[in-house]
Amino acid sequence: MTWRPVQERDLASALAFLRSHIQTSMFLLGNLEQYGLGGVAPRATSLWMLGELRGILGITNGGMVLLQAPGLNDAEWRAAKSILNGRDVTGCSGDATQVEAFLSATGLSGRADASIAREPLFELALDALRMPDCDDVSLIPIGDAPRETVEAWRAQYLAEVPGLPAGDPVHVARDDITRYIEGDTHRVLTSNGEPVAMTGFNAQAASAVQIGGVYTPAHLRGRGYARKAVALHLSEARKRGVSLAILFAANAAAAAAYRAVGFENCGAFGMIFFDTEQEVRA
């Protein structure tokens, strides 16, 4: 079997394939829904398919490799290396086992400047959402919160979470918050009018959302603010027709907060970001 570029005529079948593995396809689906096939935006994604849809490999304009190819053998993963020939790769994400196999086949697993983050993956059908007591809090659009506060929170999040892309956290945070406001993707939880936590969706596709960037400042942790923020945002999404939520947890405390509102483990998600772009040669 060989890999070939996905054309517009293949797109309906490719989308159906990705939706059948939606738990680990949200970045692929979200990028395609927002930018279409190809395009010029940094997160716009070109796709390749193996045979008659044995697997899909996406590459964003920013160099991120996105995988959805369950059950491939070593030879099929090695064949994927030719797709990347001469390209600068900045990272990779997808089902953790697939990411590990891809990195090994392409020779990227030995990079000294990065290691794979393997995080527990969770899903929740929103009709099973368990709402905590939220009488003492409110949820507001991130654009209505003090800009300096949410930028500082985002910078601290970037500094705290291991394995995220390299770069100046303050500069990256500023750009991220601008994107969140423009896309109306994130919310801020307030208590007595004061911001206490932040949550958001880092991918949206059809009737599913993927949660990301959940943050509570250190001095306010342990009060249930993260789970309240997530639950209120999901309740809001459910009212507009979203039926499924997906996320991956960076630590045990986060996983406990998500389980408290009904999330259940459904696998492992893998991510790796390189400090410098790596040119791949077949």
TrEMBL record:
Transmembrane parts of this sequence: none
Pfam (any one)? Acetyltransf_1
Gene Ontology molecular functions: acyltransferase activity, transferring groups other than amino-acyl groups
Q: Which domain of life is it from?
A: Bacteria
Known SUPFAM superfamilies for this protein?
Answer: Acyl-CoA N-acyltransferases (Nat) (SSF55729)
Q: Which residues form the N-acetyltransferase domain?
A: 140-282
- Write out the entry's keywords from A to Z: Transferase
Q: What is the protein's name according to its record? A: Putative GNAT family acetyltransferase
Which organism is this entry from? Shimia abyssi
The uppermost taxa in this organism's lineage are: Bacteria, Pseudomonadati, Pseudomonadota, Alphaproteobacteria, Rhodobacterales
